[in-house]
Amino acid sequence: MNIEARKKALRSLFAPVADKLGYKFNPAEEDVDFLLEQEAVLEQETGIPYCPCQARTKARAENMKIVCPCIPFHRAHFDAMKRCWCGLFVHKDVMDPSKLKQMPPDKFYGKNVH
Amino acid sequence: MKKVKMYTLSTCLWCKRTKQFFADRKIPFEAVDYDKADEAEQERIMAEMRNNGGGGSFPYVIIGPDVVQGYEPDEFERLVGAGKK
Question: Can you give the pLDDT of all 85 residues of chain B as single tens digits?
Fold first, then answer.
């Protein structure tokens, strides 16, 4: 499957999952397009659509926590930001995503939680 | 001027915006793409990030003695500004 077709497929796959979690795609369509493209490429390379803004390591169990949509694994943190880390999804009530900031994990959870 | 170094991912939107922030202001910086680095370098970067309390979320920006994890233009501005003169 080519990248454009896979982006479309990922969008269809993710939308109902995000909806059940109280999130929606970021209204910033250009950002969504870029992020989905990165995920489609990562999936092509690894078989899994990982978050494009979080690192994979040798620890498979940890890597599973950054498979998109990774909201359930970081729920409290993302709820506090009203967005996921990469910004592909925002809370359903967010109308202006430009006001949302990334909050470093250690500032939310405290030091050395990883 | 403070030294600026950052760890980034080539796939990360906010890493691109972080690089653009410093490039637009003509502030020199060193950037290392974690996902393009070899295994030993990746382990070193991850150890450094974890030692400073951070996890594997990018961008990770070191400005002088300070660290900013995430795209925080106001904080970049403040920390870079504090290093001038």
Answer: 899 999 999 999 999 999 999 999 999 999 999 999 999 999 999 999 998 877 899 999 999 999 999 999 999 999 998 666 5
Q: Does the residue A17 lie in any domain?
A: yes
Q: Residue A38 is part of which domain span?
A: 3-109
- Nearest chain A alpha carbon to B70: A102
Q: Do A104 and B11 touch (CB under 8 A)?
A: no
Q: Inform me whether the C-beta atom of residue A41 falls under 8 Å from chain B C-beta atoms.
A: yes
**A54 and chain B in contact, CB less than 8 A:** yes
Regarding pTM above 0.80, the answer is yes
Total number of domains in chain A? 1
How many whole angstroms separate alpha carbon B70 and alpha carbon A93?
23
A79: which 2 tokens? 């709820």
In CATH, what number is assigned to the domain containing residue A68? 3.90.460.10
User: Is B70 an 8 Å CB contact of chain A?
Assistant: yes
